[in-house]
């Protein structure tokens, strides 16, 4: 019988996701481990997300300035950069950085725990390792990525303000007013909601790859690597779906 | 195969030794590889049984079936009177509190200190009578294995023999009624291996636990075994005391004792 590895993998991830929803909402709840994972996932990605957010805002502003100046539309830079960052660049760049940092570390951590039988040891000591390791991590990534995105957006916009002031003079109040006048909830909310799905994808893929890592050190490396590759790809696919759905809802 | 008539186990201090673990006609295959075909064995309270076998003969598979990490294809496993195939997840977790398992690779949580490693099973099992006594229990378990001063170290800082002892302490801390040892002396030098064997004996005498030991280290088998069962062709090929099997005429049995 023909068996496509791609379809088999997709099915396995779907099953894994199903198991997350079946087991995740039944007691007992691993609250302590969940909070600890929120700390690990959220707090420790802050510097990375902050730096990339800052550079993103600065570069966007500096790059768009000459073109805008040709049309005499420099006063539109805040509006344009604001829309770009909040609708697309902020969520996607933060999610990709997050996939690279958190997805790989989850894949490697669970993978090495699998390889050294620590996951079996948990099961033997009467702990459901799926709940303790997978559910907590997936919930943490799902909730932390939106927060990180909002933060990256804010830092990016501030960097844009800095960028504008390197060539001209604008007050912060005018800058913010300019951005807000161009923004509607239809811009902000869909962009915010899709980051939950990005975070979920990073968590589920990282956990899946690690949880079913093959024996041996090579298996751990492969788990970390493919966690990043697959979750980055998924982020783009979800992004495409999100833009289609918001379009159908008349929000674009 | 009928239920095996074992030679009388060493008498436990509390009356006749009851059977704590029964394996009946266990079979397990991976694809075309029939690892276990028809394995049966009993384990009595306070008794050390060693299952002997060549590498790849299915010893580890057997012990993982008992603890519920693998499901046998056929046969029945009864632990402390409960058929484990009928237990749901929760009941199985409760039963596992009475079952200790020492991994061949130790499987210490390497992101936690020794103390946290020992506290993990303790905190996971909601045992009301042990609340508030965690500190003493950790110290007690560490002293049982002769490593009272390592509580704050990380597993990576310990030697192989020490790690094995800590893994045993983590198993002991729940005071299990049965301990399953998966090749407890593999990969250790002969002296450390002998110390671990001694420790297995001490644990048996101190806590009256039954032990199901997988091994092919004959030196250790001689020291710890009350009874030896030979696993070959996926079945219990022969059993008896160490001395009985050493005199066995069958070459497949005899080969182990040369």
UniProtKB/TrEMBL annotation, chain A:
TM stretches of this protein: 34-60, 192-211, 223-251
Annotated protein name in UniProt: Phospholipid/cholesterol/gamma-HCH transport system permease protein
Domain of life: Bacteria
UniProt keyword annotation of Transmembrane helix present: yes
Keyword Transmembrane attributed: yes
Source organism per UniProt: Hymenobacter artigasi
Alphabetic keyword roster: Membrane, Transmembrane, Transmembrane helix
Pfam families: MlaE (PF02405)
InterPro entries: Permease_MalE
Automatic annotation (TrEMBL), chain B:
Keywords per UniProt: ATP-binding, Nucleotide-binding, Transport
Limits of the ABC transporter domain: 21-258
InterPro entries hit by this protein: AAA+_ATPase, ABC_transporter-like_ATP-bd, ABC_transporter-like_CS, P-loop_NTPase
Presence of keyword Transport: yes
Record keyword Nucleus present: no
UniProt GO molecular function: ATP binding
UniProt-recorded name of the protein: Phospholipid/cholesterol/gamma-HCH transport system ATP-binding protein
């Amino acid at each position: 019988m023909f068996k496509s590895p791609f379809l088999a993998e997709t099915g396995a991830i779907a099953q894994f996701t199903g198991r997350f929803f079946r087991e995740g909402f039944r007691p007992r709840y691993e609250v302590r481990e969940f909070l600890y994972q929120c700390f690990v996932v959220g707090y420790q990605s802050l510097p990375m997300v902050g730096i990339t957010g800052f550079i993103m805002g600065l570069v966007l502003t500096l790059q768009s300035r000459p073109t805008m100046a040709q049309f005499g539309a420099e006063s539109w830079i805040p509006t344009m950069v604001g829309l770009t960052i909040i609708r697309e660049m902020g969520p996607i760049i933060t999610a990709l950085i997050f996939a690279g940092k958190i997805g790989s570390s989850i894949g490697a951590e669970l993978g090495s725990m699998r390889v050294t039988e620590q996951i079996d040891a948990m099961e033997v000591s009467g702990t459901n390792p799926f709940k303790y390791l997978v559910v907590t991590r997936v919930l943490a990534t799902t909730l932390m990525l939106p927060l990180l995105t909002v933060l990256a957006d804010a830092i990016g916009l501030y960097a844009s303000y800095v960028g504008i002031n390197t060539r001209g003079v604008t007050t912060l109040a005018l800058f913010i007013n300019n951005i807000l006048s161009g923004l509607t909830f239809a811009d902000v909310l869909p962009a915010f909601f899709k980051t939950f799905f990005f975070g979920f994808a990073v968590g589920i893929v990282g956990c899946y790859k690690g949880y079913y890592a093959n024996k041996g050190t090579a298996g751990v490396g492969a788990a970390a690597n493919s966690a990043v590759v697959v979750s980055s790809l998924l982020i783009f696919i979800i992004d495409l779906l999100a833009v289609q759905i918001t379009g159908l809802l008349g929000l674009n | 195969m009928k239920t095996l008539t074992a030679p009388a186990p060493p008498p436990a201090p509390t009356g006749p030794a009851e059977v704590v673990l029964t394996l009946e006609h266990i079979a397990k295959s991976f694809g075309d590889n029939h690892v276990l075909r028809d394995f049966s064995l009993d384990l009595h309270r306070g008794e050390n049984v060693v299952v002997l076998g060549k590498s790849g003969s299915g010893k580890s598979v057997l012990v993982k079936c008992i603890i519920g990490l693998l499901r046998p294809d056929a046969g029945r496993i009864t632990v402390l009177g409960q058929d484990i195939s009928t237990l749901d997840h929760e009941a199985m977790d409760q039963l596992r509190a009475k079952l200790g398992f020492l991994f061949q690779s130790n499987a210490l949580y390497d992101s936690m200190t020794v103390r946290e490693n020992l506290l993990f099973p303790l905190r996971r099992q909601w045992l009301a009578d042990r609340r508030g006594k965690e500190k003493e229990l950790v110290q007690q378990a560490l002293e049982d294995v002769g490593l009272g001063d390592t509580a704050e170290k990380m597993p990576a800082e310990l030697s192989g023999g020490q790690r094995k002892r800590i893994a045993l302490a983590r198993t002991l801390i729940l005071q299990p009624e049965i301990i399953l040892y998966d090749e407890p002396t593999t990969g250790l030098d002969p002296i450390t291996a002998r110390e671990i064997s001694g420790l297995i004996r001490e644990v048996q005498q101190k806590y009256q636990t039954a032990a199901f030991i997988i091994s092919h280290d004959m030196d250790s088998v001689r020291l710890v075994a009350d009874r030896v069962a030979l696993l070959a062709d996926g079945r219990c090929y022969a059993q008896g005391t160490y001395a009985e099997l050493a005199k066995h005429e069958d070459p497949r049995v005899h080969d182990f004792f040369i």
